[in-house]
Amino acid sequence: MAVLELINISKHFGAIQAVNDVSFSLEAGQVVGLMGDNGAGKSTLVKMIAGNFRPSHGTMRLDSADLVLHRPKEARQHGIEIVHQDLALCNNLTAAANVFLGRELRRGVWPLRILDHKSMYKRAGEIFRELKSETRARDLVKQMSGGQRQAVAIGRTMLSEAKIVLMDEPTAAISVRQVAEVLNLIRQLRDRGIVVVLISHRMPDVFSVADRVIVMRRGRKVADKQIAASSPEEVTGLITGAIEQV
């Protein structure tokens, strides 16, 4: 059963048609690669799912119920989380503080409620162990590798029992070893039944971890195929326009 359905979704900004009549569904426990050249409409599409933009036309359905989002906070309340390319982490804070940023645990009675650091360290540590990450709750983010930073960003999504995690270029500008760590984190999310939408220009990463690949070109969906039924050469052709549509 589909967790999220997009039905004839379009988005225009004045005369500019950023996304044009796109339909697909996302199923639980599935990694979907979303690929396309710059300007293909990937980011606009993901921002509609994340509540940043409202579609100009079309319908979104979450668990078979119509979904209308006015802001990102509403998307998070529905279990839709996004991990931005810049990760939006606070370098001067610990991993645990970043995981709980804006959702801090407190103890005591108002007005003397104070931050419950012990509980936040404990829960953050549990999340990192669930993700099989070497990230430690008490470490400062500024001292971490790219892979560990991704674990912190992904850890935030697990606080809210996310159904869908949208990841924007998670393996950009990190080492080969760290790429392997991030791809393993994505597999951990998939194994927990979470839908992962992986926006990436890195063909090997998508073909390593994704179950499906959706290709966009000039605002339109030109392919939606199982990874096993496609190839990097075909996807490259679809992205560049050498292959029109499949």
Automatic annotation (TrEMBL):
<dbReference type="InterPro" id="IPR003439">
    <property type="entry name" value="ABC_transporter-like_ATP-bd"/>
</dbReference>
<dbReference type="GO" id="GO:0005524">
    <property type="term" value="F:ATP binding"/>
</dbReference>
<dbReference type="InterPro" id="IPR017871">
    <property type="entry name" value="ABC_transporter-like_CS"/>
</dbReference>
<dbReference type="Pfam" id="PF00005">
    <property type="entry name" value="ABC_tran"/>
</dbReference>
<keyword id="KW-0067">ATP-binding</keyword>
<dbReference type="InterPro" id="IPR050107">
    <property type="entry name" value="ABC_carbohydrate_import_ATPase"/>
</dbReference>
<dbReference type="InterPro" id="IPR027417">
    <property type="entry name" value="P-loop_NTPase"/>
</dbReference>
<feature type="domain" description="ABC transporter">
    <location>
        <begin position="4"/>
        <end position="243"/>
    </location>
</feature>
<protein>
    <submittedName>
        <fullName>ATP-binding cassette domain-containing protein</fullName>
    </submittedName>
</protein>
<keyword id="KW-0547">Nucleotide-binding</keyword>
<comment type="similarity">
    <text>Belongs to the ABC transporter superfamily.</text>
</comment>
<dbReference type="InterPro" id="IPR003593">
    <property type="entry name" value="AAA+_ATPase"/>
</dbReference>
